């Protein structure tokens, strides 16, 4: 039987050889080769951060800021380099989430630590949620951000 380090190395080798990893590497190289796309990406990230900062402190996002962000989003969508990078990153992240979920599921089953999803079928009432615990956030958006 293989040891955990051997299995880990096998997994790492398989992940490195996966087409999604190669696609991400190519997409990053394409971004590195394009100064204009790197600059656009940086401007977009900074604009997103500005909006998130305003929302975090409860300040309104002014229409001009929203319009500027929308214009940057259009530019990002028009950039084949950035679209390819976003797609490759999403596919790679999905693969890694599947790996993590498989490991977690197997260990939770053995350790008896599996948790259920809180939702409409949750039948143990609020008292079973551990006090002030809220159900997990769903969907995209600032509610999914973890801000220290």
Q: Number of helix segments?
A: 5
Mean pLDDT across the residues is 84
Gap from first CA to last CA: 42 Å
Derived from helix and strand composition plus strand pairing, the structural class reads mainly alpha
Show unreliable segments: 133-148
Note the main sheet.
Answer: none
Gyration radius (Cα, Å) is: 21 Å
Count of distinct strands: 0
Order of helices and strands: HHHHH
**Helical residue percent?**
55-70%
Strand content: under 5%
Shape call: flat
List keywords for this structure.
148 residues, 5 helices, 66% helix, disordered C terminus
Structural features, described:
The chain has 148 residues and is mostly helical. The chain is built from 5 helices and no strands. It has helices at 4-17, 19-32, 35-56, 63-78, 80-111. It starts with a helix and ends in a 37-residue tail after the last helix. Mean pLDDT is 84; it is low at 133-148.
SSE diagram, text form:
Blueprint: H1 4-17, H2 19-32, H3 35-56, H4 63-78, H5 80-111
Summarize it:
With 148 residues, the protein is mainly α.
């Amino acid at each position: 039987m293989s040891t955990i380090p051997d299995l880990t190395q096998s997994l790492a080798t398989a992940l490195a050889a996966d087409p999604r990893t190669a696609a991400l590497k190519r997409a990053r190289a394409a971004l590195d080769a394009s100064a204009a796309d790197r600059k656009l990406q940086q401007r977009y990230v900074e604009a997103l951060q500005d909006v998130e900062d305003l929302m975090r402190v409860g300040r309104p996002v002014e229409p001009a800021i929203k319009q500027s962000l929308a214009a940057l989003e259009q530019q990002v969508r028009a950039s084949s380099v950035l679209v390819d990078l976003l797609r490759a990153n999403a596919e790679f992240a999905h693969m890694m989430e599947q790996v993590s979920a498989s490991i977690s599921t197997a260990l939770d089953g053995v350790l008896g630590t599996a948790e259920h999803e809180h939702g409409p079928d949750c039948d143990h009432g609020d008292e079973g949620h551990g006090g002030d615990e809220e159900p997990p956030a769903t969907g995209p958006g600032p509610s999914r951000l973890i801000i220290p």
